[in-house]
Amino acid sequence: GAVVSQHPSWVICKSGTSVKIECRSLDFQATTMFWYRQFPKQSLMLMATSNEGSKATYEQGVEKDKFLINHASLTLSTLTVTSAHPEDSSFYICSASHPGAMNTEAFFGQGTRLTVV
Amino acid sequence: GDSVTQMEGPVTLSEEAFLTINCTYTATGYPSLFWYVQYPGEGLQLLLKATKADDKGSNKGFEATYRKETTSFHLEKGSVQVSDSAVYFCALSGTGNTPLVFGKGTRLSVIA
Q1: What confidence tens digit (pLDDT) does each residue in B72-90 have?
Q2: Best of A34, A105, A110, A114 to disrupt the B interface by mutation (most B CBs within 10 Å)?
Q3: Least confident of B12-21, B29-38, B56-65
Q4: In chain A, what residues touch B103 (CB-CB under 8 Å)?
Q5: Which of B44, B45, B96 is closest, CB to CB, to A104?
Q6: In degrees to the nearest 10, what's the CA dihedral of A45, A42, B69, B20?
Q7: CB-based contact B105 A108, cutoff 8 Å
Q8: Pairwise CA distance, residues A78 & B19, whole Å
Q9: CA-based max dimension of chain A
Q10: Taking the mean position of all CA atoms in its chain, how far away is CA A88?
């Protein structure tokens, strides 16, 4: 199957700083990637759809200015948590699917555990 | 809109017990159906899939059959192991540009 790599696996940062998380499709080009947030013992919450070369589409209730998404190439999307606060601590996961394929599965990154202290 | 409902956990089983995790869906069109597994601290891995009615997906001893008449895709395993302890997500497909629709996940704990 296809491989999606997410980096870093975990990060600890101080309140007020920004953190960037990278999501790469290693063996296919992904025009669209998805960013999820997962709270402990809960399901995935879709945050936004990252579109290569255009603005991301955010889900209702997700702050665009706090969670900056950039999809500058066909293999890389980044999520930047700006001015992080302890309540932003969570597990963030990205996914991508083969572009244009119907009814296709998604491939997930390993996830990033963010802890804001 | 499309939705997935799966049984709520947690589910606790003894080793070698039979596992069933129920999943039903609501969808327009003809989606593909998936089971993903998430081990602690990791992302999601595709466990198995089925792309059309009556297809059976299978992997690592797990099976699920795409039942259009009951709109179900129940996950089964005949004999679970401690290493199967994880969270299992049922999902249905979009196209390459739309996200999967996930159930809420079912946490499975297998004890020796």
Answers
A1: 999 999 999 999 999 999 9
A2: A105
A3: B29-38
A4: 43
A5: B96
A6: 150
A7: no
A8: 38
A9: 42
A10: 13
